[in-house]
Amino acid sequence: MASICQIGIAKYADGRLVEEWSSLIDPEDYFDYINIGVHGIDEHVVKGSPTFPQIIEILAAFLKNTICVSHTHFDRVSVSRALAKYDLQEIETNWLDSARVARRTWEEFAWKGYGLANICEMIGYTFKHHDALEDAKACGQVLLAAIETSGLDLNAWMYRVKQPIGTEKSSLKTEIKRDGNPDGELYGEIMVFTGSLEIPRTEAADIASSIGCSVGTGITKKTSILVVGDQDLLRLGGKEKSSKHIKAEQLISKGQKIRIIKESDFIALVQNTQKINKPYACTHYGDRYGV
Questions:
Q1: Pick the CATH number of 175-282 from 1.10.3720.10, 3.40.50.10190, 3.40.640.10, 2.60.120.430
Q2: Which strand ranges, in their side-by-side order, compose the sheet holding 214-216?
Q3: What is the pTM of this model?
Q4: Closest CA relative to residue 161, chosen from 94, 207, 206
Q5: Helix 98-105 and helix 116-123, axial crossing angle in degrees, nearest 10
Q6: Dihedral pair phi/psi, residue 277, rounded to 5°
Q7: How far apart are CA 82 and CA 268, in angstroms?
Q8: pLDDT in tens, 76-119
Q9: Taking phi first (over 0 means left), then psi (-120 to 50 degrees means alpha), and beta for anything else, what does residue 279 get?
């Protein structure tokens, strides 16, 4: 699986394809006739193409601190094995399996038939299968279709794929609404979460409630604290921020007092308030995705 012979990347933002890149790769390895039968690439096709270390900077530029979508775990494992093969540093990216997304979106694909070609046929997207760039674009289209069908945004899907297939979608949309503990030190604060968090949303909401914060599902004129995934606050350009983040900033510009804090700041706030010593490690999430 470390012998990658082609890489294709499709970069999506705001629901549309904004950039693409592909290259044949010389895997410096033996070509198995079974794999050649699938993708039609052999040693003659890749002759003169760059090796994996020669394109690593391009790959890292696309993937670092983003959400990378692939259909099943094959691409994720292949990239990891190739990095290990050449003793290269792991790329800090966040993988999202579009097969797991599809299985949780469409009941007919929950347990079988959730290959990329089948899903694309169902959503009406035509592509050339087993071409790396074409597959990458197709993964993006599957995710966009799932977002439209389910009503869950990208950040919600990062959480949803970790849950059982049978989990009701409605519960995912309402799970973080909580009333604040009247005896909590922060009683009266209205908190909202956005972005991909290391802490499960239900757990974060329970903790916030325990220290007195009421937890809402959206930004309103009553919101006083917005907790954002650590990496979300480092993004450039308003269009790369979540809709909740943008709305909070708009209300702040009109005079509403809303504190925007990182997830790690929220954890520190909780620890200082309740003396909670449970450690949390925050990972970085972006709102662009590629394959």
A1: 3.40.50.10190
A2: 214-216, 190-194, 225-228, 259-262
A3: 0.58
A4: 94
A5: 50
A6: -105, 5
A7: 38
A8: 988 998 999 999 999 999 999 999 999 999 999 999 999 999 99
A9: beta
